[in-house]
């Protein structure tokens, strides 16, 4: 078996081949040890395939190309405050942290919350985590420069739009990247805050994707 560094670099090239041009994101994919995010060691040999794989609590670690696509849309800048809904394995959070963002992440399954908190700490990624329903956002930390949801929502939770930063002078407002649609298939929607009111947004519907469902309530 190739050493994992080589396999990671090959994965980044696969992701590039799928049309991702964001060099920072490709660098993160080439650097992050994705096998560490799979508790089931039998899956480690598949860690650098461009596929979603099972994790605990019947959830999945997302497909690297999808993580890359959504992260490139979000385009987090160093020190920006980014909220992730659906920590899961922690891989997406690690990608965001590698780009220098201040990452906040909410997970509703305690088993994943506990495991992933310990894992991210062990690997040295600075991510603040919280257990609960992410559809309410994280009001104590808001507003956010960016919010990324990694579970498919039927509709966009209003609290997430409310917690996007308002535009300020030359600085554009915050953006939300979220898969929206039924449980089978969703489309990536990007919402950008353009003013003070909750209706002051633009909304763009992009590629089709497949995520595990976004579950409301605990
Ligand atoms: N970002 C993860 C993807 C995990 S799959 C990764 O990189 O591995 C989506 C995750 O969203 C699951 O762990 C699921 O439990 C979680 N989730 C679903 N609905 C949620 C909600 N309302 N609030 C918080 N987490 C939620």
Secondary structure: elements and pairs:
Layout: H1 4-17, H2 23-31, E1 53-55, E2 59-61, H3 64-74, E3 81-85, H4 91-98, E4 102-107, H5 110-123, E5 127-131, E6 146-149, H6 158-162, E7 175-181, E8 186-193, E9 201-209
Parallel strand pairs: 3-4, 3-6, 4-5, 6-7
Antiparallel strand pairs: 1-2, 7-8, 8-9
Bound molecules: S-adenosyl-L-homocysteine (SAH).
Residues 59-62, 85-86, 88-89, 91-92, 106-109, 112, 133-135, 150-151, 212, 214-216 line the site of S-adenosyl-L-homocysteine.
Give a description of the structure.
- The protein has 218 residues and is an alpha/beta fold.
- The protein has one domain: Rossmann fold, CATH 3.40.50.
- The strands form two sheets. Strands 5-4-3-6-7-8-9 form a seven-stranded mixed beta sheet, covered by helices on one side.
- A hairpin with a 7-residue loop joins strand 8 and strand 9.
- Helix 1 packs antiparallel against helix 2.
- It is globular.
- The protein starts with a helix and ends in a 9-residue tail after the last strand.
- The model has no long low-confidence stretch (mean pLDDT 95).
- The structure holds S-adenosyl-L-homocysteine (SAH).
- The site of S-adenosyl-L-homocysteine (SAH) has 24 residues, from strand 2, helix 4 and strand 4.
